[in-house]
């Protein structure tokens, strides 16, 4: 397994729509997912999309934020994923991205979604989720469509360096 180089904002691969995976259960697909997993863990991420590691394929991986961390990290790969909002209800939440290191933005996303994708062997994975889990899925699928979270800011002023956001936005909101 290898830790892969993460593409940063400004790299053209982050702006391209990715191609679908046609063949499952291949050694090359398994290697991509294992390498992505090792990379996400090394960077302390909660999700990662293939274009972030310079691979223009419709693959995402994520840790389920609803499962408490233990000694074993559970990572779910989703191949050719899609999602559908289950209502028009949206909520704002702070997001960061391994491709935009050190920055955060307030992003508006659907509260509850259903998603569909495939595992390494081509078996269908379906789930209905809300909260952070729904946010992570939407964020990573955006990467597959050439979108970064900064295109979805709830407020154009609500974007900046993590330490400034923590001090001036998050703490201010809590003190109200």
Task: Characterise the protein shown here.
- By secondary structure, this protein is α+β, with helices and mostly antiparallel strands.
- It has a single domain (12-175), classed as Alpha-Beta Complex (Peptide Deformylase).
- It contains 3 helices and 8 strands; from the N terminus they run αβββββββαβα.
- The protein has helices at residues 27-42, 131-144, 162-175; strands spanning 47-49, 59-63, 75-85, 90-97, 100-110, 112-118, 124-130, 159-161.
- The strands form 2 sheets. The protein has a 5-stranded antiparallel sheet with strand order 1-2-3-6-7. The chain has a 3-stranded antiparallel sheet with strand order 4-5-8.
- The relative contact order is 0.18.
Outline the secondary-structure elements.
Blueprint lengths: L26 H16 L4 E3 L9 E5 L11 E11 L4 E8 L2 E11 L1 E7 L5 E7 H14 L14 E3 H14 L1
Antiparallel strand pairs: 1-2, 2-3, 3-6, 4-5, 5-8, 6-7
Please summarize what this structure is.
By secondary structure, the chain is α+β, with helices and mostly antiparallel strands. The protein contains 3 helices and 8 strands.
Which outline best applies? globular
CATH superfamily: Peptide deformylase
Helix content: 25-40%
Number of domains: 1
Major beta sheet, strand line-up: 1-2-3-6-7
Please tally the β strands and state the result: 8
Overall SS class: alpha+beta
Largest sheet: 5 strands, antiparallel
Q: Calculate Rg over CA atoms.
A: 16 Å
Rounded mean pLDDT score: 93
The CATH topology label is Peptide Deformylase
CATH class: Alpha Beta
Strand content: 25-35%
């Amino acid at each position: 397994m290898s830790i892969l180089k993460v593409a940063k904002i400004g790299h053209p691969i982050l702006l391209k729509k990715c191609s679908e995976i046609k063949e499952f259960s291949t050694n090359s697909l398994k290697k991509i997912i294992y390498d992505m997993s090792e990379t996400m863990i090394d960077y302390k991420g909660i999700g990662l999309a293939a274009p972030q590691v310079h691979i223009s394929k419709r693959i995402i991986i994520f840790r389920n934020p609803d499962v408490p961390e233990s000694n074993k990290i559970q990572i779910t790969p989703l191949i050719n994923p899609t999602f559908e909002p289950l209502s028009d209800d949206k909520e704002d939440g702070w997001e960061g991205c391994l491709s935009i290191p050190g920055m955060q933005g307030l992003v508006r996303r659907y509260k509850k979604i259903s998603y569909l994708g495939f595992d390494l062997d081509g078996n269908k994975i379906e789930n209905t989720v809300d909260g952070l889990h729904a946010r992570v899925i939407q964020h990573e699928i955006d990467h597959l469509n050439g979108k970064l979270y900064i295109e979805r800011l709830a407020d154009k002023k609500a974007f900046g360096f993590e330490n400034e956001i923590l001090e001036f936005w998050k703490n201010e909101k809590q003190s109200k």
